[in-house]
Amino acid sequence: MTAEAVIPEMTTSSLPDWVFPPPGGFVAEDLDRIPDLPAHTELIDGSLVFVSPQASFRMRVLSLLELEVRRAAPEHLRVRREMSLILDTSQRPEPDLMVVEAKATLPGDETFYRPADTLLVVEVVSPESKLRDRHRKPALYAQAGIPHFWRIENDSDKPVAYVYALDPATRTYALTGIHYESLKLTVPFDLAIDLTEIDKI
């Protein structure tokens, strides 16, 4: 006789109150007020988006990019990992990496940044975030006027970097390059990243 795992039935009464959106949806400031909200929860179009367990590829790419972008960034800029960005009242995504103005940082106090202080956002695509990272989030970042966007894709466990620049006339991103083994750029600042270094992380 085999024992079967008993999975408790999820009912409306067993869910926390904050799971249910208020009339009109959540607003950006709600993420700072909701108790016991799972880490890295995003707000997209007024709805809460929860993050799935992260794969090794994503974490290795982020470690490499964080190190190299921080090393290359000019003194007046700061690199932030997995912090939220308030775009408007119903949009508060959490880019995997972003570069912000140093003057926008308040040591230990801030929980989010604003588009006006943001130079670059980076998203590392995972299977569950593919549609958001390829379509919705870039559109939101562009509409908010963020000058630079990188999307990192997994190609057989190798990172491929899609680099975009903002067209200020249309508030859309234009692809400026696809980078495989190395990411060498002069904007938004000079940097050269050996993408094959992911194998050493």
Automatic annotation (TrEMBL):
GO MF terms, alphabetically ordered:
endonuclease activity
- In the UniProt record, does the keyword Secreted occur? no
Mind telling me which CDD domains this protein's record contains? DUF820-like (cd06260)
Entry keywords, A to Z: Endonuclease, Hydrolase, Nuclease
The protein, known as? Putative restriction endonuclease
Database matches in InterPro entries: Nuclease_put_TT1808, Restrct_endonuc-II-like, Uma2
Give the source species. Answer: Nonomuraea jiangxiensis
Cite the Putative restriction endonuclease domain residue spans from the record.
29-188
Q: What is the lineage of its organism?
A: Bacteria, Bacillati, Actinomycetota, Actinomycetes, Streptosporangiales
Q: Which PANTHER family match?
A: SLL1072 PROTEIN (PTHR35400:SF3), SLR1083 PROTEIN (PTHR35400)
Annotated signal sequence is none
